[in-house]
Write a structure and sequence with these properties.
The complex is a heterodimer of chains A (about 500) and B (about 475). With about 500 residues, chain A is of the alpha/beta class. Chain A is built from 15 helices and eleven strands. Chain A has a single domain (about 5-265, about 270-300, about 385-480), classed as Amidase signature (AS) domain (Amidase signature (AS) enzymes, Alpha-Beta Complex), CATH 3.90.1300. An eleven-stranded mixed beta sheet of chain A has the order 1-3-2-4-6-5-10-11-9-7-8, sandwiched between helices. The longest helix of chain A has 21 residues, at about 370-390. Chain B folds into three domains: about 5-290, no CATH class; about 305-410, no CATH class; about 420-480, Arc Repressor Mutant, subunit A (Orthogonal Bundle), CATH 1.10.10.410. Classes of the chains: A alpha/beta (about 500), B alpha+beta (about 475). Bound molecules: zinc ion (ZN).
């Protein structure tokens, strides 16, 4: 048995039962990184020394006979847009190439209280803008199932690390699908919690009203455990929910009998990959077998979701990214005066996609265009929210594909941003509505690339999502299959 | 053609909260550079703002005190522009849904009351302070930023263009300052930048209503600069119009050293602020109960106080206006009369000897060496006839130097007024005996000659004789 192939809940039990030590586990994962990181490129920064120190602390604690928390001693990774005190946080951008935050994100503080082993910071699309991790200013990440393919994005590094055994768990962020879509592409479980369920404090903002941090894990059980650690109200985030946090592991029961599952016709879009459609239809059949009731529903404003998203997100991004000016932190390219310095810095240090979205956003916000674009987008956003609210009057959850296709080839879409944006069709509506969603593996394409099933819930219905996902997962074995990587595999 | 000026003001007032508007950093003035900073006010990647509830409270109180409607649903917006004193390159402010709207304050200029309407009051964050190696950012090789002021809460109080002279603008700004001081939301120290104004000025032919093209002047930080800039701008625009020219819509700066305004930025160069709702902050929802509670907490405001001083105490409108102009002075006045001192005498003393001494030593009423209670006690001594007004001046000077009560000073220095008829008569007789010439003059019909004799009596009594009694007894003796 390879330790790096195991989910956290199995490893936790092994640690508690003293079958392994945290140091052995961490070394196994580090060895795996040595073996396959060159092929995958999941990481931007590795924190090997502190990882081994953290593992040693857990071992000492176990040796003293002390109880350990679930994540204690289990190696994981953080997307590089989550601020880590003393550890570089670059957002995969040249503009923050040497930026070391003086503070921890709220989720990092919560994680540290649980004493996990932190392996490093994972690759992503620059400032989380993209769906393939090709927009990283440093290097692309390769899909562990086929290294010629993208891992999805923007949390592609986190998803690939988990899929490749280079992290047992990881955190990502999801603004328009950036956790769920790479989870789907990499055959892992990824959840975007309800907007406000997890504090955004210390998550470098892309689009503030859409961003949400969430787990990427081997299976649904780990997802529930990780959510337990990171969820909850934070006084530093005025948009965080004050609702009490349940024990999400209590939702890990196999029971969907009588569950009303909505099937939105608008999510089975034209151009959807035939393998994806087949896998989703098969999964839906499986739900029927498990006792759920399948109900056809309509979410009529879905077709406007992409346009709405690509106005709101860039508008927020345009203002969020104004602070990168070279004045007090980050990189600076000098100029003859302050304005030229700022212009040079931003022109030379932002990547093409970031600049594209800043321009779209500023255009949408500029005098004379605001009402026609931004304000209208906000109105359509409300309509999309109302679509869901109406649907949830009759169904408990909604099931849909996570992405219209399996992972595509690196470079195949990079020159066609519009085609790339359409990839988000099944995921962005949730962000616009602030709803929770989870992607679980539900099969493979004929090229044996993973396909993800998306389950969408009401606000704060993470327990229902976990129960639904868990019941489905346990009836299948997709989550047990790991990507096979080539040459240097140990 | 005769022109009239149309003037509007945007007053920026720093609020005296202990902490900044969106983080826990201190707001105190004068700290070492970049020591009152944290990730939030430095605008580091990933930080989020949290609204200081006191700022909302202060803004609502300012709205109530200026007769505004308080919006029950208000929100913050991002005002985007690049400047190195603004770490996020946007200012978190309020755009289309400010906290308060549609208010007014009444001002009095040359005996006439005028109502100045307030468009709105909104909350926003202050920017940092640039320290240039040269004089401006353009001619400096390097500039440093001090972020201590970044995120200090500001109120922006926007008036309608309802003023038509420099005097009205000054009186309006003084009135707003006075109200903010009364409700205790700002220190209003203009020299520390607590209170500053942007103003706009346009001209139109007298009798017309259409607004002319306006110019704006930013960051006016003294009443003198406000008056001078307006006067200059009115003169400049009048000359342009009389020469058949057109006013260019632009932002101008006031150069106090040269006493002129200079063009800074034309309309074409004006910023498009690309306002956007602040996604990191939920809307501010106020309840009627909350607003009512704040209303109850408001102190007596300048207008009400002035009415009380003229109505209840019979002070002149002028005296009442001077005393109520600052809350501290008005409270000092109330404390002077609380034990029964005559209000008119109190006003005279406060505006006379007290003001003179404070001015001479550059002190404010709050650090007056003569506390209100002691001044009140001294005024009571005058009213009771224990001391004369003349002696009172000596007592006051003593009180200025020592912490002693007026009673003790009067006793120690033997300043009690002589009201004993016998004692005064004795001095009167001695003075008559020693001054035959004025006595003869008086008795010869020159009644004014009594003045010299009164002076002598007062001198010999060391000023302690009751002057009225001296006059009366002298006249009686001389008529005998
Ligand atoms: Zn601060």
């Amino acid at each position: 048995m390879k330790l790096y192939d195991q989910p956290a809940h199995v490893l936790h039990d092994m640690l508690v039962n003293k079958e392994i030590t945290a140091t052995e586990l961490t070394q196994a994962v580090l060895a795996r990184m040595d073996a396959v990181e060159d092929e995958v490129g999941a990481y931007l920064t590795q924190t090997r020394d502190t990882a081994l120190q953290q593992a040693a602390q857990t071992d000492a604690k176990i040796a003293r006979g002390e109880a350990i928390a679930f994540l204690e001693g289990i190696p994981g990774a953080l997307k590089d847009n989550i601020c880590t005190k003393g550890v570089k946080t670059t957002c995969a951008s040249k503009i923050l190439e040497h930026f070391v935050p003086p503070y921890n994100a709220a989720v990092v503080e919560k994680l540290q209280a649980a004493n996990p082993v932190l392996l490093g910071k994972t690759n992503m699309d620059e400032f989380a803008m993209g769906g393939s991790t090709e927009n990283s200013a440093y290097h692309p990440t390769h899909n562990p199932w086929n290294t010629e393919c993208v891992p999805g994005g923007s949390s592609g590094g986190s998803a690939a690390a988990v899929a490749a055994g280079m992290a047992i768990w990881a955190l990502g962020s999801d603004t328009g699908g950036s956790i769920r879509q790479p989870a789907s592409f990499c055959g892992v479980v990824g959840m975007k919690p309800t907007y406000g369920r997890v504090s955004r404090y210390g998550l470098v903002a892309y689009a503030s009203s859409l961003d949400q941090i969430g787990p990427l894990t081997r299976d649904v059980t780990d997802c529930a455990h990780l959510l337990n650690v990171i969820a909850g109200h934070d006084a530093m985030d005025s948009t965080s929910s004050a609702a009490a946090v349940p024990d999400y592991t209590k939702a890990l029961v196999q029971d969907v009998k009588g569950l009303k599952i909505g099937l939105p016709k608008e999510y089975f879009v034209k151009g959807m990959d035939a393998d994806v459609e087949k896998a989703i239809r098969t999964a839906i059949e499986q739900f029927r077998v498990l006792g759920a009731e399948i109900i056809d529903i309509s979410l009529p404003h879905t077709e406007y979701a992409i346009s709405t998203y690509y106005l709101i997100a860039p508008a927020e991004a345009a203002t969020n990214l104004e602070r990168y000016d070279g004045v007090s932190y980050g990189e600076r390219i000098d100029g003859v005066d302050i304005m030229e310095m700022m212009t040079n810095t931003r022109t030379q240090k932002f990547g093409a996609e970031v600049k594209r979205r800043i321009m779209i956003g500023n255009y949408a916000l500029s005098a004379g265009y605001y009402d026609a674009y931004y304000l209208k987008a906000l109105k359509v956003r409300t309509l999309i929210q109302q679509d869901y609210a109406k649907a949830f009057e009759t169904v408990d959850v909604i099931v849909a594909p996570t992405a219209p296709t399996p992972a595509f080839k690196i470079g195949s879409m990079i020159s066609d941003p519009l085609q790339m944006y359409l990839q988000d069709v099944c995921t962005v509506p949730l962000n616009l509505a602030g709803l929770p969603g989870i992607s679980v593996p539900c099969g493979y394409s004929n090229q044996h690339m993973p396909i993800g099933l998306q389950i969408i819930g009401k606000p704060l219905a993470e327990e229902t999502l976990l129960r639904t996902a868990y019941t489905y997962e346990q009836s299948q074995s997709f989550h047990k299959e790991m990507a096979v990587l080539g040459g240097k595999q140990a | 053609m005769n022109y009239e000026a149309v003037i509007g003001l945007e007053i920026h007032s720093e609020l005296k909260t202990n902490t900044k508007i969106f983080c826990g950093c201190a707001t105190s003035f004068g700290a070492e550079q970049n020591t009152h900073v944290c990730p939030v006010c430095l605008g580091l990647p990933g930080v989020l703002p949290v609204v200081n509830k006191r700022v909302v409270e202060f803004a609502i109180k300012a709205g109530l005190a200026t007769n505004c409607t308080i919006n029950n649903y208000s929100k913050f917006d991002r005002k985007n522009y690049y400047y190195p004193d603004l770490p996020k390159n946007f200012q978190t402010s309020q755009y289309d849904l400010p906290i308060a709207e549609h208010g007014y304050v009444d001002i009095e200029v040359d005996g006439k009351t005028k109502r100045i309407r307030l468009t709105r009051i909104h909350m926003e964050e202050d920017a940092g302070k640039l320290v240039h190696s040269g004089t401006t950012i353009k001619d400096s090789a390097t500039s440093n930023v001090d972020y201590n002021r970044t995120g200090v809460p500001l109120l922006e109080i926007v008036s309608e263009p309802d003023m038509s002279s420099a005097a009205e603008a000054r009186t309006y700004m003084e009135k707003v300052k006075s109200i903010l001081e009364y409700i205790d939301v700002s220190n209003c120290r203009m020299e520390q930048g607590n209170l500053r104004a942007d103003l706009n000025v346009s001209l139109r032919p007298v009798g017309t209503t259409e607004l002319g093209t306006r110019t704006e002047m930013k960051n006016i930080n003294s009443f003198k600069a406000l008056e001078d800039a307006i006067s200059y701008e009115i003169e400049r625009q009048t000359e342009v119009l009389e020469d058949g020219g057109h006013i260019v819509q632009e932002t101008r700066t006031w150069d106090p050293a040269r006493g002129i305004t200079l063009s800074m930025r034309s309309k074409e160069e004006a910023h498009d602020y690309r306002y956007m709702p602040e996604p990191d902050l939920p809307p501010i929802v106020t309840t009627p109960e909350q607003i009512e509670r704040y209303r109850q907490e408001l102190p007596e405001l300048p207008d009400a106080r002035q009415a009380r001083l003229t109505g209840q105490y019979g002070l002149s409108a002028y005296d009442a206006a001077v005393i109520t102009a600052s809350r501290q002075l008005a409270e000092y006045f109330d404390a002077v009369i609380v034990d029964g001192a005559d209000p008119k005498l109190a006003a005279n003393w406060i505006m006379g000897d007290l003001a003179k001494n404070l001015n001479a030593e550059g002190k404010t009423i709050e650090d007056s060496p003569v506390e209100a209670k002691r001044l009140g006690a001294m005024i009571l001594l005058i009213s009771k006839g224990t001391i004369s007004s003349k002696i009172a001046k000596k007592v006051f000077e003593e009180m200025w130097k020592s912490p002693d009560d007026p009673e003790k000073i009067v006793k120690d220095k033997g300043l009690v007024q002589i009201t004993d008829t016998k004692a005064i008569e004795a001095i009167v007789d001695a003075v008559i005996a020693a001054n035959p010439k004025p006595v003869a003059d008086y008795q010869g019909g020159n009644k004014k000659a009594i003045g010299a004799l009164v002076g002598q009596v007062m001198k010999q009594s060391k000023g302690k004789a009751n002057p009225a009694m001296v006059n009366q007894l002298l006249a009686a003796r001389l008529e005998q």
